[in-house]
Amino acid sequence: MLTDAELMRYNRQILMPQWDIAAQEKIRAARVLIVGMGGLGCPVSLYLASAGVGELWLADFDTVEESNLQRQVLFREEDIGCPKAEAAARQLAKVNPHVTLKPLVRALDADSLPALLADVDLVLDCTDNFSTRDAVNRACVMAGKPLVSAAAIGMSGQLSVFHGQGDRPCYRCLYPEGDAGSATCSESGVLATVVGVMGTLQAHEALKCLSGVGVPLFGKLVVWEGESSMWRTLAFRRDPACSVCGNPEVSKS
Ligand SMILES: [Zn+2]
């Protein structure tokens, strides 16, 4: 049950015709893992905390650097040198004291992910490298948990929600060969607002998945071209021969 203070705090959401107290209680009961507290992870965690998601696990092994402050909007000058997960938890606690925050100052890999995923309802991939993305996708498929994934580079971004169950494709269904050759923002740069746009949309998809309100982007890739500010939406299917979520017998034949 939401307390009177929570009903007051979330009043503008509960007022919406699509959203009600039951939706608000669902997100309060939810626990999510955010992998990467950089340019995407900052707006993701800020909106999920302010909207009232009950428990946020914040994973990042890195510390705040001066060059992060251009786009990683949770951090302040005094956070330079501090672990990002801990600095983020400090800021988010000031935004919403009703939310439980668990900073995880370590790198996540194929060995550590399964145990973490057993205890969460949804994962947000806010990393910028293929090997972590691939490991997070594999672990999510194995655990049957939805994965909200975004990427931002230069002046454009991409967004989708993966699952690898039923007719919902996984990340590898979309990128069977991987995208290991793609650039990262540390190599190619990124405009501050682009991670803000894409991270906010990631938080939006997570709220839809957790509340059951609206239609999440399963099987759809949204591409935002920031130079023209035009959107494209591409549909893709689950690959029966996918090396991660497919049937191994299909991929052999
Ligand atoms: Zn797949």
TrEMBL record:
Residue ranges of every copy of the THIF-type NAD/FAD binding fold domain listed in the record: 10-244
Key words of the record: ATP-binding, Nucleotide-binding, Nucleotidyltransferase, Transferase
Pfam families: ThiF (PF00899)
Gene Ontology CC entries for this record: cytosol
Annotated GO MF terms: ATP binding; molybdopterin-synthase adenylyltransferase activity; sulfotransferase activity; thiosulfate-cyanide sulfurtransferase activity; ubiquitin-like modifier activating enzyme activity
Enzyme Commission code(s) on record: 2.7.7.80
Enzyme type, top EC level: transferase
Listed InterPro entries: ThiF/MoeB/HesA, ThiF_NAD_FAD-bd, Ubiquitin-activating_enz
Pathway(s) of this molecule: Cofactor biosynthesis; molybdopterin biosynthesis
Role this protein plays: Catalyzes the adenylation by ATP of the carboxyl group of the C-terminal glycine of sulfur carrier protein MoaD.
Summary of subunit composition and partner proteins: Homodimer. Forms a stable heterotetrameric complex of 2 MoeB and 2 MoaD during adenylation of MoaD.
PANTHER family in alphabetical order: MOLYBDOPTERIN-SYNTHASE ADENYLYLTRANSFERASE (PTHR10953:SF194), UBIQUITIN-ACTIVATING ENZYME E1 (PTHR10953)
Protein family: Belongs to the HesA/MoeB/ThiF family.
Protein name as catalogued: Molybdopterin-synthase adenylyltransferase
Source organism (scientific name): Fluviicoccus keumensis
Taxonomic lineage: Bacteria, Pseudomonadati, Pseudomonadota, Gammaproteobacteria, Moraxellales
